[in-house]
Amino acid sequence: MQYQDGRWQIGGLDMAELAEQHGTPLYVYDSSIIERQVTRFQNAFSSFDHRIFYAMKANSNQDLLALMKKLDVGLDAVSIHEVRIGLEAGFSADNIIFTPNGVPFDELEQAIELGARLNIENLSYLEKLGEAYRSDVPCTLRVHPGLVLPNASRDATGWYQRSRFGIDRKQLEEARRIIDLHGIRVEGLHIHSSSIILDEAVFGTVAEVLLDLARDLPDVRILDLGGGVRPPYQPDDDHPDLDALASCLQEPLEHFEQQTGRKLQLWFEPGRYLVAESGVLLTRVNVLKEVGGRSVAGVDTGFHQLIRPKLYDAWHEVRNISNPDGPKQVIDICGCLCEEDDLARQRSLPEVREGHLLAILNAGAYGYSMASTYNSRPLPAEVMV
Ligand SMILES: Cc1ncc(COP(=O)(O)O)c(C=O)c1O
């Protein structure tokens, strides 16, 4: 969003007018930011044979998916419903990876019928896949990030220990037995890292661990490093640098190719990196009050529409669209649900009055897609500019 001629704009449109036209609360996505992020990702890995599969759980808005398709990005889906939504949006099935966990095997069968790619994360699915399809249906294998532990930096270790996804180190031998028994074609290996990981070198370590496993699996042609690349949520936010991340991968991949004669394709499944910064949530201030020693602006949205502050203590910048040049005051922005619903605490904002329009930034990922109808409130509208 830009401040121009005394007005806040997004994609060249006046934000106050958008709010008038569509009502609040309102999600607005700026397609030019998404294009910029996709281009940044593609450029960073341009020296690799690579593919990007957008993790649509971050935001499955139809216009946004159409834009991803135009930008030649595939999809990473985590439910059969997401697979179907992707197909309806015009993606070809082989451009959709399905990474389920804990769902009935029936969902995998449906995905196979539809032609989507499978990413298998437990022995139960692997066994069923082998029994039913033998070598007919290739898959990638999601391995547990605990494999990275001996080399992981400290910020990564906690998450890698806690993760429950993927096939554990202790089960790899059994996985191998099942693969050999049924002749399953494992064409790729996958690890997804959390967005709390800020150290680019961790991704290099992940690649080395996967390459080690790939040596014994002759069908492997794909290294899928998942998502979890975090964009900055505030100006001086620490976040991985894509060029540095790419250079951590260069050496291990070249070494593997020299040793085995196999050139691997790199896959990524970024979600938030591609869309977080594109979105703002516009909300109206309905109530101003002084309570318990704090100034509170009560707004017409809440954690039913943006749950990240409540769930993860996530920080989202807030701007006062109605009074950009007003004198600063410190205020809490609170949602309209009848429980603790702080969207932003102790923010220094241009003076806020009832009726003002606020913008909550970086709301393009895990905003609308995690919204609910809690308190029996309808979902907000979404607009893409
Ligand atoms: C398997 C998989 N891939 C990709 C993603 C996207 O992660 P992010 O939005 O942090 O890039 C997730 C998120 O949980 C995931 O579980």
Overview of the molecule:
- The termini are close together.
- This protein folds into 2 domains: 2-29 and 276-384, Lyase, Ornithine Decarboxylase, Chain A, domain 1 (Beta Barrel), CATH 2.40.37; 31-275, TIM Barrel (Alpha-Beta Barrel).
- Strand 16 (328-334) and strand 17 (342-350) form a beta hairpin.
- The model has no long low-confidence stretch (mean pLDDT 94).
- Helix 6 (123-133) packs parallel to helix 8 and helix 9 (200-214) runs parallel beside helix 10 (242-260).
- The relative contact order is 0.16.
- Helices cover 32% and strands 24% of the residues.
- It is elongated and about 70 Å long.
- It has 385 residues and is α/β, with parallel strands linked by helices.
- The strands form 3 sheets. Strands 4, 13, 14, 15, 16, 17, 18 and 19 form an 8-stranded mixed β-sheet that branches. It has an 8-stranded parallel β-barrel with strand order 5-6-7-8-9-10-11-12, surrounded by 4 helices. A 3-stranded antiparallel β-sheet has the order 1-2-3.
- The chain contains 12 helices and 19 strands.
- Pyridoxal-5'-phosphate binds next to helix 11.
Any key phrases for this structure?
385 residues, alpha/beta, Lyase, Ornithine Decarboxylase, Chain A, domain 1, 2 domains, 8-stranded parallel beta barrel, binds pyridoxal-5'-phosphate
Summarize this, please?
The protein is an alpha/beta fold.
Bound molecules: pyridoxal-5'-phosphate
Which outline best applies? elongated
End-to-end separation: 11 Å
Low-confidence stretches: none
Q: Mean of residue pLDDT?
A: 94
Beta-strand content: 15-25%
Report Rg.
Answer: 23 Å
Largest sheet: 8 strands, mixed
Number of helices: 12
Count of β-strands = 19
Number of domains: 2
CATH topology of the largest domain: TIM Barrel
In terms of structural class, how would the helical and strand content be classed?
alpha/beta
Query: What is the CATH top level name of the largest domain?
Result: Alpha Beta
Helix content: 25-40%
* The CATH superfamily title of the largest domain: Alanine racemase
Q: Architecture of the largest domain, according to CATH?
A: Alpha-Beta Barrel
